[in-house]
Amino acid sequence: MKDRNLIIGVIGILVGIFGVAVSILSIRSSVDIAERSGSFEKGELVARIARQDVGTKREPINIIFGIDFNEVNSNLVIGHFPLAILNSGKKSINNITVTYQYHESFSRHAFEHLSFEAEGTYEVKELDRSFSKMGSQHYASYRLRHLAPGMSFGLNDPIALHKTEVTEKIPLEGSAYLPVTLKFWRFFDILITAQDLPRLKQDIHFQVIDAKSKDDLIARFKKDIAYDEADKLRNESTFIEYLGYMLFNKHPKSVILVYPELRKVEVGEIVMYDSFVTDENITTASYELASIDFLMK
Fold first, then answer.
1. Burial of 175 (0-12, 13-18, 19+ CB in 10 A)
2. Cα 84 to the chain's mean position, in Å?
3. What is the distance between the alpha carbons of residues 91 and 85, in angstroms, rounded to a whole number?
4. Do 197 and 45 form a contact (C-beta atoms < 8 A)?
5. β-sheet bridge partners, residue 147
6. pLDDT of residue 5
7. Residue 17, helix vs strand vs coil
8. Rounded-to-integer distance, Cα 152 and Cα 20, Å
9. For residues 138 and 102, is the Cβ–Cβ distance under 8 A?
10. pLDDT of residue 54
11. Cβ atoms within 10 A of the Cβ of 273, count?
12. How much of the chain exceeds pLDDT 90, in percent?
């Protein structure tokens, strides 16, 4: 009886092993067939703004523009966030839609009368463009029907670059006053969808500050923005909270600094400036919000 049970047990084990082996072989066979037939080959959508990938992480992309506002003399400056889209896969991607979502305070609708330019291997006629409103939100959308493997295109959606810093004078005793500069971020979203592919969504945060040159922009960023944010975090935290932040938040904050070239455009009595961004105009910086220098403050 024991031998019989032993034989049955061994047979059961062998059957189990055989079943696993058959399953593994079946899976491997399916993989081989899929690889030979190209079922695993697909298009892969990659999008970047100024060297940073779009839609790959939850953190916003932070961009700071530097504009010499004395040069533009309070005239409108039209800015661009150059978005590059690439198909890095092995199959074509169909029905790519890029949507910029702005709050109505951006007055994005005013730019719908401008001529549209696209970069890359596609003519403008191959891109469908639309604009819509819903409540307080404005949507500027672009649709490309087809993007072949290894091909790319770029979009430069226009936006008004208004200064995001305000200086107020706080009266002191007598005729003296204390100048205080307040800086703030503005926000918009980019959503990219394509047929049979996961969507890419990205929050964009940006500032526009007064700067005389690219070097001046970098210096102002270090002195006024990076320092102020670190100082604010320390003032809002206890010693233990700040120490914990130093020890367990080892993720430097990154920012893209852009000092664009400006071109003066005159239409009758209307004067405005259009901006152009190249790699030479862009600097990527990173900084820690918490440091030992602020700990004992």
1. exposed
2. 11
3. 15
4. yes
5. 93
6. 42
7. helix
8. 45
9. yes
10. 92
11. 20
12. 35
Give the separation between CA 245 and CA 292, rounded to whole angstroms: 11
> Which tokens is 274 given?
């259009």
Number of other residues whose CB lies within 10 A of the CB of residue 158: 20
Confidence at residue 198, expressed as pLDDT on a 0 to 100 scale: 92
- Strand partners of residue 188: 204
Helix, strand, coil share (%) of the chain residues, nearest 5: 30, 45, 25
Q: What are the tens digits of pLDDT across the range 15-59? A: 333 333 333 333 344 434 444 545 457 899 999 987 789 988 888
| Rounded-to-integer distance, Cα 153 and Cα 145, Å | 12
Measured CA distances, 10 to 15, 19, 25, 222 (Å): 8, 14, 22, 73
- Residues whose CB is less than 8 angstroms from the CB of residue 58 and which lie 6 or more positions away in sequence, other chains included: none
Q: Measured between alpha carbons, how far is 185 from 206 in angstroms, rounded to an integer?
A: 5
Question: Is residue 267 predicted with pLDDT exceeding 70?
Answer: yes
Q: Read off the pTM.
A: 0.74
Neighbours of 245 (CB within 10 A): 17
227 burial via Cβ count (<10 Å: 0-12, 13-18, 19+) = middle
Token digits for 65? 């523009």
Q: How far apart are CA 221 and CA 64, in angstroms?
A: 8
Give 297's pLDDT tier (boundaries 50, 70, 90): low
